[in-house]
């Protein structure tokens, strides 16, 4: 077969002038891991991903039940690429449920176990290898055992078909009856400590109720009306819940838990670094996981200084039961050429172009020389981005790119929808936003200090996130800010009480509630807390995704300034001052301004009311239970 002729060079050059094949951000984000993957040359550091799959195979073969691996790598060598590769291969081929535990998404490092419960539930809410959510894969496997209570020869229903059966039912009462009887039947055939966890997992089969069930499994409080509808307690936040979920998974699947983002400058209130907190958690998970692999990824300096040199040998050993840490390698001449050719092939193929040689507009010898310097993947791709221009053009220097802006726009591309209920993360973004404008006058308030030490003797509080101290009209003001995205329960009431500050524990001049308008409030909360709050000069400030998003992106850049982006605090603050108007940062952010603005003394007219609480009782005879399961099995 003859080789196709190259495309006209003028046409290729025109495309290169318009689009840069290496323009995409060079940081692998969680979106790449769960969604469309970052381009991956699979032979790069294949020894690391192969080790993970070999461990899963050994578990499947019964050689051992649980193991742990550690990957160490310098910044930019491809730590998160490996996790992305593993996730996408598992999604394509099956073999294990996958949990991504990015430590920078744990909103309260003082409660790391609760944070892991959230990450576990979020991960299992993503699509698995059978075209449905991983929760639904687990629920379908559990349903098979439950349905065999009725008839041992019952044919298993595929997860997709089971989800479709519940979705096609117009009878809400019927769906509730199915869930109830599946729960009762399953608890007869498997050892279960908490039937409510089983019930919640079965509720994930209903697309309408899956978000609520997943939130409950994540430890979040449900609104009372929803808890009644699903026949669940309002909340189940505990590490015992995590262990029960892991135990249920072990009956049907291996589990791969990946801990990443452990190099950021994050500490809890006792001064423990996030990597040390995760190391302790890994030890506890290892001792309780019945069937799976725990993979931890970090930089060599973090491993040496914060783990080996600082923690007990028992913790260190539990992180590396598979052997010595697996080190990622730098590129060499061959892999540098292959990496660049891989990126360019994707670029040219998408445009139906054939280049004159596979690394055009570069020269292979040029790339081999770069490879001899043992660069990281990120360094090579960054060099390509800066030097990718049609041959024959003069050696014009690449345009100046502000590294902070590049980092910020990269983080701005992260989907934050799953983070809009993370009270602590949202509060951290707001707190950092106010820190960047100290000394400024905004909405008539001169900002003097912002502090998380809200209680007596400067103590932190779990529900009042921070105070803003300053001068307004010559008077000292102390504005308490609480992000309360809870659907209901004790936490929501505790937050409201702090904002009202009737006992003057926090010395507030006014309280400010941050909450989405689409989160309904029941009559009790509205009348007992919200109405008195706004009448006393407090304020309801609507949380809007487009207003909080730039603050969250900037906070992420700040936290990763050393580990990923190599920018300084001074550069970040300078960028906020110069580009704040363009990106809604600093004094230009509408949400920060609204918090400082004069109170309206009114509850928003379009605030939703929570539906009335209805008690949903399902009581059937044994015969009716059996008929319900038969109906589901043959629907």
Descriptive account of the structure:
The protein is of the alpha/beta class. Among the domains are: 9-27 and 332-387, no CATH class; 132-250 and 609-635, no CATH class; 417-596, no CATH class. Helix content is 48%, strand content 10%. It has 27 helices and eleven strands. The chain has helices at residues 9-18, 30-34, 46-60, 79-93, 112-124, 134-147, 159-168, 172-189, 195-203, 210-217, 224-230, 239-250, 274-288, 300-308, 313-319, 333-350, 364-371, 377-387, 403-412, 423-435, 490-500, 523-535, 545-559, 561-565, 569-583, 590-596, 622-633, and strands at residues 66-72, 97-102, 255-260, 292-298, 326-327, 441-442, 445-451, 466-472, 475-483, 510-515, 539-542. The strands form two sheets. The protein has a six-stranded mixed sheet with strand order 6-7-8-9-10-11, sandwiched between helices. Strands 2-3-4-1-5 form a five-stranded parallel sheet, with helices on both faces. Helix 3 packs across helix 4 (79-93), helix 8 packs across helix 27 and helix 21 runs parallel beside helix 22 (523-535). The longest helix has 18 residues, at 172-189. The radius of gyration is 27 Å and the shape is globular. Mean pLDDT is 89; it is low at 394-398. One of its GO terms (molecular function) is ATP binding. InterPro entries: P-loop_NTPase.
